[in-house]
Amino acid sequence: MISEWVLPAVVCAPVTWVSLVFRFREEGRLLGTLRSAALTVGVVLWTAAVAAVAGGLLLPHAASVPPAAVGAVAGTGVIPRGRAEQTGARAVLAVLTLGDSLLLHQLALRLRSDRADWCDRMAEGFRDCWDLDAFAADLRDHLLMRVDVPGRTARARAGLRKEIAERHGEVRSAAQKWITAETRMQKACQQQGRRPAPEEVRAVRRAFGEAEQYLRHLLELGHAYGKRSDARRLLVLKERHMAYEEVDDAVTVGR
């Protein structure tokens, strides 16, 4: 019957989507970029096709099994299982959904790459650590305001607050290191009437790069636990601090 082929696929598609959301809930956004969305759709379609084939071939020999159950079981197959669970029907399902492993691996890599690209874009553009440090403080406040969400346990909330504070502390320490190196270099150049030495410039750049890297580390939390609307809000915060740099430049030129 047609229902033995179609119904498992129809049930499998939404179950697979929910399972993917659960599996990658803290690893990235499934529809964040065109490539990640394409891979996500590929996983859903492939798993639905496997469910259809499994239903069409197996159900005639197992009349007691509802077609919808085949689709539901196939859809949950994208959720990682422990070794203890890889027995019986799960072992058969693992063989049937073998093609999903490659797509899921590529999807995981793409989500990781998307997150890194987003953090790079958000962290770049600052010309000094004064505004970078101020943006990091606003980012910390933004994240802390969104810790208390329904469904998150008290222990998870405390752990997230601690992680936010630790990562922000790393940004603050690195920014202070840059400020110290920059101030020392400028003071020495003014007192001695000379240009910055190469080793001084390298030390300042190294400190700035370290601060940028720690800012990316903090931004990862915003990407992991935030929404798309939060990303737009963070971009507004960044643009506000970039505008402060332009105002400072205008004041300096006007003197």
In short:
By secondary structure, the chain is mostly helical. 78% of the residues lie in helices and 0% in strands. Helix 6 (129-144) runs parallel beside helix 8 and helix 7 (154-192) runs antiparallel to helix 8 (198-225).
Structural write-up:
- Keywords: Membrane, Transmembrane, Transmembrane helix.
- There is one protein chain.
- The protein has 255 residues and is mainly α.
- The chain has 9 helices and no strands.
- The longest helix has 39 residues.
- The radius of gyration is 26 Å and the shape is elongated.
- The relative contact order is 0.11.
How many DSSP-defined strands? 0
List low-confidence stretches. Answer: 250-255
**How many discrete domains?**
2
Structural Rg: 26 Å
Q: What's the helical proportion of residues?
A: over 70%
Largest sheet: none
Give the averaged pLDDT, no decimals: 85
Distance, first to last CA: 84 Å
Number of H- or I-type helical stretches: 9
Along the chain, the helix and strand elements come as: HHHHHHHHH
The oligomeric state is single chain
Name the overall outline: elongated
Structural class category = mainly alpha
Q: Percent of residues in beta strands?
A: under 5%
Keywords: Membrane, Transmembrane, Transmembrane helix
Transmembrane segments: 6-24, 36-59
